[in-house]
Amino acid sequence: MTQPKNFGFGEEEQMVRDSARKFLKDNLPIERLRTLVAKDHVEAYESEVQPANYDEELWKQIIELGWTALGVPEADGGMGMKMIALTSLAEEAGRAGLPSPLISTLMATCVLRETDNASGALGKIAEGRPASLAITTAEGSWDSADTDVVAETSGTGAVLNGRASFVQDARKAELLIVSARSDAGIGLYAVAADAPGLKILPDRIVDLTRDQATVEFANVEVKQSDVVASLGTGDKAVESALPALLTIVSADICGAAEWQLQTTAEYAKVRKQFDRPIGFFQAVKHPIVDMMVDIDRARSIVYTAACAIDTEPETALKYARMAKAAASDVAAFCSGRSVQLHGGIGFTWECDLHIYFKRQKHNQMYLGDGAFQRARLAELYD
Questions:
Q1: In terms of CATH architecture, what is 132-231?
Q2: pTM here?
Q3: Over residues 154-172, mean pLDDT
Q4: Average of pLDDT values for 327-354?
C-alpha cells in the first residue's frame, strides 16, 4: 500500500499541531520552564529526593484541550485520532521541553489500544488521568516477553509481586500499565498508582523535565476489570505498540532538536567576535546547517513511521526503528553543537541549553539509541 500524500497530515492534524504550538508558546515560555525545573541546582541534584516538578494548572488546561483523549478510540470516550496527530503533538511537547506526564500517557494509550479489555483504562485516560508504562526490567529490557513482575491468579483477578524499573513520570502518573508474567504467559494490568502494596522509589536522573522511578509491587490486588490484556496476550500487545512508542519518543527528540537549532542560530546572530556576529564565520555556519539537515532527515523518517502505523502497519516497525536511530543521533549531535557554539556560557547552569541537553540525552537512550536500533534493523533482514 502506498502512503498518502503529506503522510496523511490533514486539516485536523494541522489544527492539533498549530494549537499545541501556540498554547505552549503562550503558557510555557523558556523563562517559565526554567522556573519550574531549573531554578535551583541544589534542589535539582543534591536534595534527598529529586523533585518531580511540573505545573499542575497547566496540566489541567492540557486535559481541557483534550490532549490525553487524542489517541483514545471514540468508543472509549476519546477522539480516536490517527498516529500522525499524536506524533505532531509529541513533537510540540519536545519543542517546549514540556515537563508533564503527557508523553508517558500517550505511550500508555498506544499500548492499551492493542489490548482486548482496555475500555475502562482508556476511558480514565480520556478523562485526564495521567498514565505510564511499567514494563521494563531492572536490566533495562522492555522486551514484550520479559518482566520482573509476577502475577498470581486470585479469584477473578490477580495479585502482583515484583518490580518494574525505569518507569517514566511515575510520580505524576495516576494509572500504571503493568506487565506481569505467570505460567500462562504475559498479561497487562491497569493499577492505580496509590494502590495498597505499591511503592514508588524515585530514581535520580539527569533530565529535569521528567521523573523516573522503580515501582515495587507487594501483594497488589488487581480486579478482573483491570486486567487489560489477558495472560498470554500482553506481550503481543506491547510488541504491536512498539512502533508507536518509538515514534513518539523520536518526535519528542525532533521537537527539542528544533528548539536547539533555532536558539543556536539566534545566538549566532547576536554574539560578536572580531567585530562580527559569530554566524558570519564558516566554522559556525556549517555546523548549524548540519543540525538543520539532520533534523529534517530525522523528522521525515518519524512522520513516515507514523504514517505507516496508520496506513501500512506491516512496515511500521522497520520505519519506527529507522526513526529512533536517526532521532537518537540527532539528539546527540544537536546537543553537542548547541553547547559548543554557545561557547563558555553554553556550559553554565544559567544558560537554558542544559535543560534541553539533558532531555535529549535521556530520550537518546530511552528504548534504545541509534546503534541499538540499527542492530535490530539488521535482524529484520537476516
A1: Beta Barrel (2.40)
A2: 0.95
A3: 93
A4: 93
What residues does each domain of the chain span? Answer: 5-130, 132-231, 235-380
Query: Which residue do the cell numbers 540525552 mark?
Result: 361
Q: Which residues pair with 191 in a beta bridge?
A: 176
Residue 99's pLDDT band (cuts 50, 70, 90): very high
What CATH architecture is 235-380? Up-down Bundle (1.20)
pLDDT bracket for residue 272 (50, 70, 90): low
Residue range 5-130 in CATH 3.90.1150.10: no
pLDDT band at residue 352 under the 50/70/90 scheme:
very high
